[in-house]
Design a protein that fits this description.
CATH architecture of chain B: 2-Layer Sandwich
Number of helices of chain A: 14
Largest sheet of chain A: 5 strands, mixed
Number of domains of chain B: 1
Number of helices of chain B: 3
Largest interface: A-B, 46 and 39 residues
Helix content of chain B: 25-40%
Strand content of chain B: 5-15%
Number of strands of chain A: 7
Oligomer: heterodimer
Order of helices and strands of chain B: EHEEHEH
Order of helices and strands of chain A: EEHEEHEHHHEHEHHHHHHHH
Strand order of the largest sheet of chain A: 3-5-4-6-7
Structural class of chain A: alpha/beta
Strand content of chain A: 5-15%
Largest sheet of chain B: 2 strands, antiparallel
CATH architecture of the largest domain in chain A: 3-Layer(aba) Sandwich
CATH class of chain B: Alpha Beta
Number of strands of chain B: 4
Shape of chain A: elongated
Shape of chain B: elongated
Chain lengths: ~350, ~90
């Protein structure tokens, strides 16, 4: 799409370096709806904006330049935070990936930043020589090299765009709090739908296969004897495992004991299945013991596995730590799933 | 809210003798691993390190080394499997 024809562009400014699109700083319903879709994994790879230079308000040669990724959520947070300000926004081409991941993977890094500064002729646009980058870009950008290669100093702004107005008021100095990456409940909750969508991709076909097998082997359990509506135990326990690992663990992340996510997930699984058993123990006792035990084992392993998968979304886990926990936990989780599956199959025969 | 992960695993190495005290590591670290004391940086909270690599990349004198990497589980599983294969050859 042409840069000027994107929905958030309100005008085109004539500048020393040519026409620059001016962007809205109020996010509209389309932007909010887009965020919902992205968090459900719909059209995530198309959620990019055109890289290049943009204007907020009516900036001049003294206005600060903020740099961001071309992931629309990152860009939207930035322009929203610059409401009523005069500033320039330089959008790097990170293939629609957010700032932190792009910095980690190299697309938001020194080389592309310098190239973009030169290509957009920022030295002709402004009289100062400063770029303000989100702090989380620092794992990709070497500030001292940027200065050496294009003459612009890099200032790392706050981690969260929402702190930008305070950062600006503070004379472009970030407080200790602005420098820290937190992982609050709302941020963790926002990631849950994507976890569930990913789990559903294998869980829903698996559940259909189990229902089909169940109906073949024990027709009465499929509601053919008038007990329709009773959820078969395998479906119940698969769901509880997924819920414990992908919903309960993110929500209770700092309440669940243990440092390893695999442990947190296991405990969430024990908690959830304990409640389930308390509420509906007949679902467990109505099945052959080997089937109940097998599915309980699978449920707990799944909870632990999915919780461990959430390390990828977390903002504080180190790859060395994940590798360490993975080496111990993954073989145990896979073994538990295999043993659980064997127990269940033995109960069918 | 404490966001500390496994202890004693991070690969962060800092050579204080080379430090020029510019404070960049302190500035870019999202988990407060570094502090500045008497004009030099110091590692205060090693277990908070998530190995993002920002400090090492922005240290102008190369006094910091860390095995930075992407924390995604699938990426780590893939690299472990590849590593095992490579060792087998």
């Amino acid at each position: 799409m042409e840069k000027e024809r994107q929905a958030f562009v309100t005008a085109v400014l004539d500048t020393a370096v040519g026409p620059v699109p001016k962007v809205a700083t109020r996010l509209g319903p389309v932007d909010h709806w887009g965020r919902v879709l992205v968090r459900l994994g719909i059209g995530r790879m198309r959620y990019a904006i055109e890289p290049g230079l943009y204007a907020v308000g009516n900036p001049d040669g003294k206005s600060p330049i903020f740099v961001t990724a071309n992931y629309k959520l990152s860009f939207d947070q930035l322009r929203g935070a610059l409401h009523k300000k005069q500033a320039w926004i330089l959008v790097l081409d990170t293939n629609g990936i957010n700032v932190w991941c792009a910095a980690g993977k190299g697309s938001f890094s020194t080389g592309p930043l310098v190239q973009s500064v030169l290509a957009e002729r920022l030295a002709e646009l402004v009289s100062h020589r400063t770029l303000i980058l989100p702090q989380l870009a620092a794992s990709g950008v070497a500030a001292h090299l940027v200065r050496k290669e294009c003459g612009f100093a890099v200032w790392y702004g706050p981690v969260c765009a929402s702190h930008l107005p305070a950062y600006w008021r503070n004379g472009f100095k970030a407080s200790r709090r602005m420098r820290r990456k937190e992982f609050p409940l709302a941020a963790r909750a926002e990631l849950i739908p994507m976890e569930l969508v990913n789990a559903g991709k294998w869980a829903i076909p698996l559940m259909l296969v189990i229902l089909f097998l169940n109906s073949l082997l024990t027709p009465e359990s499929f509601g053919l004897d008038g007990r329709a509506g009773k959820t078969p135990l395998p479906i119940l326990l698969l769901s509880s495992g997924i819920a414990a690992g992908s919903i309960l663990t993110p929500l209770l992340l700092f309440i669940l004991p243990g440092r390893a996510f695999a442990v947190k997930g296991l405990l969430a699984g024990i908690l959830l299945n304990g409640i389930l058993f308390w509420e509906n123990y007949r679902a467990f006792t109505g099945e052959p013991p080997s089937s109940s035990a097998g599915w309980l084992l699978i449920s707990l392993a799944l909870a632990s596995l999915l919780a461990m998968n959430f390390t990828g979304c977390s903002t504080f886990t180190s790859p060395s730590g994940v590798r360490k926990e993975l080496r111990v936990a993954l073989p145990l989780q896979l073994a538990a799933i295999a043993v659980g599956g064997a127990l269940w199959l033995s109960s069918l025969l | 809210m404490s966001a500390s992960y496994l202890k004693n695993v991070a690969s962060l190495v800092f050579v204080q003798e080379e430090c020029v005290g510019c404070g960049m590591c302190y500035e870019v670290c999202p988990h407060g691993v570094f502090v500045l004391l008497e004009g030099k940086a110091r590692i205060a909270l090693p277990d908070n390190c998530m190995e993002c690599g920002a400090c090492a990349v922005n240290c102008p004198v190369g006094a910091i080394a860390v095995q930075a990497g992407v924390g995604c589980l699938t990426a780590i599983v893939n690299s472990l499997l590849r590593g095992r294969k490579a060792n087998g050859r």
